[in-house]
Amino acid sequence: MRGSSPNSWTEQKKHFHDRREGLTDVIEEKGRSDVTEERRVALVTGAARGIGAATVRALCAEGYGVLALDSCEGTGDDLPYALATREDLEKLGAEHPDQVLTEVADVRDRHAVDAAAAKAVAHFGRLDAAVTAAAVIRGGQPLWETPEADLRTLWDVDVMGVWNTAAACIPHFLAQPAPSGCRFVAIASAAGTRGLFHLGGYGAAKHAVVGLVRGLAADLVNTGVTAVAVSPGSTRTAMLAAATGFYGLDDVEAFAESQLQGRLIEPEEVAGLVAYCCSPGGGVANGAVMSAEGGFRG
Fold first, then answer.
1. How far apart are CA 184 and CA 194, in angstroms?
2. Which of 44, 139, 140, 265 is the most exposed place for a label (fewest CB within 10 A)?
3. Distances (CA, A) of 204 to 200, 209, 237
4. What amino acid positions are annotated as catalytic residues?
């Protein structure tokens, strides 16, 4: 439903129309060249390794300033594999010291994510994009045998982490004189559009991410800010390596059988699509689930 009042949708569109008209005046006064020539800035969660780290590198190659955020918990969380460490994040930051600002924060902590978004704006002067690559995986059992704690962990990190990042970053997008180039990109999964064996909880979380993005895109109507989900298939990451244990596999390369291209996807390949979705031209994908699945067959 669009609202409890019959006039709510009309009033909302008028609000955004009036706001956009005001923003147009500001842009004309400032000059479009001043807006477009400034360095674009992105906040990336789960940035210390995997798709997150590859995304930071891809955005840096495009000239972005990046706030790279990661919890850096290492072996501290109750997961079947180790998470990234402070050393991983610091090493990434050292690759592009003039472009990357690192921040240790947990996406489950809304206040910490709010502070990180504000830090990005304070340091770089603006915020144009956010990429939510922070996620964990739990699985290996049918739904009726899956511990409730597993589902709660997946929900808190994989879903609320995306929610918190959107809630922290979108107001900074809308506060810009020209927000129409701002982009929110959530990393979903092939598990976000289909069911996967013994990954019911993970699939539920990733389906929720897709729904969150679609709802966010609707909320952003007429602002020019867009939201999109990117759905990777079997990608060579620590998370995929952890999933070998769910299926009794000895080698992560066994997952290549699920790909029509006959090989695993590399994080850099996913990052290339994410970088496009972060760009002003990526706005055409608004509300979509962009496949980076490599012909995933499940």
1. 23
2. 140
3. 6, 9, 21
4. 202
